[in-house]
Specification:
The structure holds two protein chains of two kinds. Chain A is of the alpha/beta class. Chain A has helices at 24-30, 34-42, 73-85, 93-98, 104-108, 110-117, 149-160, 172-178, 203-206, 223-232, 237-246, 250-275, and strands at 13-18, 44-48, 61-67, 86-92, 140-142. In chain A, helix 3 (73-85) links the parallel strand 3 and strand 4. The radius of gyration of chain A is 21 Å and the shape is globular. Chain B is an alpha+beta fold. Chain B has 15 helices and 14 strands. Chain B has helices spanning 40-44, 52-57, 64-79, 85-115, 121-127, 129-150, 170-195, 234-240, 265-272, 278-287, 299-324, 331-334, 381-396, 405-418, 423-427; strands at 2-5, 15-22, 25-33, 159-160, 163-164, 207-212, 223-226, 231-232, 241-244, 253-256, 261-262, 348-356, 359-367, 373-379. In chain B, the strands form five sheets. Chain B has a four-stranded mixed β-sheet. Chain B has a three-stranded antiparallel β-sheet with strand order 1-2-3, covered by helices on one side. In chain B, strand 4 and strand 5 form a beta hairpin. In chain B, helix 3 (64-79) packs antiparallel against helix 4 (85-115), helix 4 packs antiparallel against helix 11 (299-324) and helix 10 runs antiparallel to helix 11. Classes of the chains: A alpha/beta, B alpha+beta. Chains A and B meet through helix 1, helix 2, helix 5, helix 6 and helix 9 of A and helix 1, helix 4, helix 5 and helix 6 of B.
């Protein structure tokens, strides 16, 4: 994030916009109830179609929160327009962050997926799914499917206080262990906790649901160790990939794996050269 | 006279309205959905059954509970397994909570301001602060229930095929009961507020459909009953409903016997009003309704009545569960289902219907012997009533011709939003 984007503004003009999605992240904000109303007094919420009749994107906005994916040409146009009129663009939730559930379609194949649901698939405006950061510049990401209202509140309060928001680079396992949960990995379940960015209070593992990585990968995940662990507990590569697809982290994981593999190759070639 | 409303606000998902009035006749009334298609049914194909409820929850951020639970019930139907009574009670409590928080949100924040022509909720809150508090309290009660039982309010975690991954602690259920009285007061407050709404005069005889059970105000399970008389099993519902694609919208449409029909709170009230909770029944009696109500604006009143019904019923269920909840392993675990194959050992299909806040949700799943999805079909409530909104508008709009354009648009939006449409669901 550029420093110039985070000067302290008194009552920042804020917009919240959903592209194609379930809008769960926007409801997570509304679900803050009383605390949302308190927040609404400290900001100038100029655009949010859930509470206001102002459907046009006009700007300028100090902070713009974007949820969902650019599926249609209109979504894409809106997103680019939002970037143009916003000082700071923050993506909300897993779909905007990694492509999320929507990105599963890319792995199925767009035309095959369309044909499965529609008799006349050619009539539909439907692009492959990309993370928002691959389309426009993103200043900050609030991850998770759906976002945690508390984290949203923290981020916006940090910005209001003139601070740069951040999320510590800890794996989900840290909070999971603090909560005293039984380790699902050790039980043989396929759990992405070790490679996934924490901060969710291990909410799924608390309910004995293994982590599928909806907060995205850590900056430097130990992919190699993770995969070996999965294989050791009897999971196939295909199974691992299927799980990583659900919340849109398969591509990042493949990229990371390739990087690790390449550096290993590189190291090997260097060693060989030395011997020569 | 062309009437175009781009980007309808204050409803889930994205849609435009295009209308045309010609010499007192409505030449056109069309809701054009602009939401991108997410192809949820196609991404389920080829995946293991236990991925299904996790993915289908994400169809909608306001009613994930019903999407998730209905696919779980559908899978149980396909596998021919029957979860414990305790599991069913916990799920019913989740369903009631789903109804409560969705209705309270729609009533106060999305629809009621319309009837007074208020365009900004923050203004509406300033004018009606006590009702805002009621809506928030009502929602807080329901969201807390979902958190305690489901692990999270939006996209619940703890439910699985056969039961629950973890059960709520008794002490936490007791805490919920502390919130109940306040929630009941809040529901009654919103009910009074709803009755005071200036509801437009409107009448159009139409077909209604909802879940039906001989004893209960069915929302979790049942057959489907049409007001005109026919009753269908969940399995047949997908066949008698004619679902089709429009070329300019992602959301499909549906008809029954070639005609539009209404699902949702008003349909449930019209068909099942004699099975409401005692408090809600009393209100129905006081209001001296004659059924069926053929003014779809009354969907808002029906939602308020259901808020009272669901809150009261949730209290009864909570008390029952506090008294009787016992540790039990989920049937899914006992059958060692998770990670395993289809217990029937062959290709099977499952069917399930549930009442989402907006009406009947239908799911069909076909699975192979390994428990891998071969085919999925999901028919959401909004798909079922989109045609009906348009039919209503054809009758309602001629009376608006003499109004100024702002007032006319406001009336049109009021009717559309009274249905509580969810374009995210419709376009899944």
């Amino acid at each position: 994030m550029k420093k110039s984007n985070i000067k302290k503004v008194n009552k920042p003009k804020v917009a919240i916009v959903g592209l194609t999605c379930c809008e769960g992240c926007e409801f997570a904000i509304l679900d803050l109830g009383e605390r949302f109303l308190e927040l609404a007094k400290r900001i100038d919420l100029v655009h949010w179609r859930f509470i206001k009749e102002d459907p046009k994107i006009l700007g300028p906005y100090d902070i713009c929160f974007v949820e969902g994916s650019a599926v249609t040409k209109n979504n894409l146009k809106t997103l680019k327009e939002l970037r143009r009129v916003s000082k700071m663009l923050i993506v909300l939730g897993n779909c905007a962050h990694t492509g999320g559930i929507h990105r599963l379609k890319n792995w199925v194949g767009r035309y095959k997926a369309l044909g499965e649901v529609y008799e006349k698939p050619e009539a539909l405006d439907n692009a492959d799914i990309l993370p928002i950061k691959d389309i426009v510049k993103v200043d900050f990401t609030i991850p998770t499917c759906p976002i945690n209202g508390e984290e949203f509140l923290n981020v916006i309060l940090q910005i209001l206080a003139g601070k740069k928001p951040s999320i510590p680079q800890n794996p989900v396992c840290l909070e999971c262990q603090i909560n005293g949960n039984e380790c699902l990995l050790q039980k043989g379940e396929l759990c992405c906790g070790p490679i996934t960015l924490g901060g969710c209070n291990a909410i799924c593992c608390n309910s004995k649901q293994s982590c599928w990585g909806c907060r995205g990968l850590l900056e430097e995940p130990d992919v190699d160790k993770f995969v070996k662990n999965c294989f050791l507990t009897g999971h196939s590569a295909a199974e691992v990939k299927k799980v990583l697809e659900v919340f849109g982290i398969k591509q990042d994981w493949l990229d990371q794996a390739e990087k690790e593999w390449r550096s290993e190759q590189k190291l090997k070639s260097l060693t060989v050269k030395k011997k020569n | 006279m062309k009437i175009v409303i781009n980007h309808l606000s204050k409803m889930e998902g994205h849609a435009d309205f295009i209308g045309d009035i010609l010499h007192g006749d409505v030449a056109q009334a069309k809701i054009k959905t602009t939401e991108g298609v997410r192809l949820i049914e196609s991404i389920l194909v080829g995946r293991k059954f236990y991925d299904v409820p996790i993915i289908t929850a994400r169809i909608c951020g306001i009613c994930p509970v019903v999407h998730s639970l209905n696919t779980i019930k559908c899978l149980e139907n396909a596998f021919a397994i029957k979860p414990s009574d305790q599991t069913v009670k916990l799920r019913q409590l989740m369903e009631l909570s789903q109804l409560i928080h969705s209705h309270a949100l729609h009533l106060y924040f999305l629809s009621m301001p319309d009837f007074y022509g208020v365009k900004d909720d923050l203004e509406f809150i300033k004018k009606n602060p006590t009702q805002a508090q009621s809506a928030i309290k009502s929602r807080a009660f329901a969201l807390k229930i979902l958190e305690v039982i489901g692990g999270r309010a939006i996209h619940p975690i703890a439910c699985e095929v056969g039961g629950f991954k973890v059960l709520p602690k008794k002490a936490r259920l007791e805490d919920l009961l502390d919130l109940w009285e306040e929630a009941m007061e809040a529901a009654l407050d919103l009910m009074v507020f709803a009755v005071g709404l200036p509801i437009p005069e409107f009448f159009r005889p139409q077909e209604f459909a909802c879940l039906y059970d001989k004893k209960d105000y069915a929302i979790y399970d049942g057959d489907i009953k049409f007001l005109s008389g026919k009753i269908f099993t969940p399995q047949h519902y997908g066949k008698i409903i004619d679902e089709y694609q429009l070329l300019d919208s992602g959301a499909k449409r549906a008809n029954y016997k070639g005609k539009s029909f209404m699902v949702g709170a008003l349909a449930r009230l019209n068909i099942n009003h004699d099975k409401l909770s005692p408090e809600a029944k009393k209100i129905v009696k006081d209001l001296e309704f004659s059924f069926p109500i053929n003014n779809t604006f009354y969907n808002v009143i029906a939602q308020a009545l259901e808020l009272v019904h669901a809150t009261e019923t949730a209290g009864i269920l909570l008390k029952d569960l506090i008294k009787n909840i016992k540790p039990e392993e989920s049937l899914g675990k006992r059958l060692n289902l998770i990670g395993n194959a289809n217990p029937k050992g062959k290709v099977t299909s499952g069917y399930s219907v549930m009442e989402a806040p907006r009406g009947i949700l239908y799911d069909m799943l076909r699975l192979d012997e390994n428990g891998i999805v071969l085919k999925a079909d999901i028919i959401t409530p909004t798909v079922q009533f989109l045609n009906n909104i348009e039919q209503d508008l054809l009758v309602f709009m001629p009376g608006l011709e003499k109004m100024n354009s702002d007032a006319r648009e406001q009336k049109i939006k009021t009717l559309i939003r009274a249905y509580d449409p969810c374009i995210s669901c419709a376009t899944h």
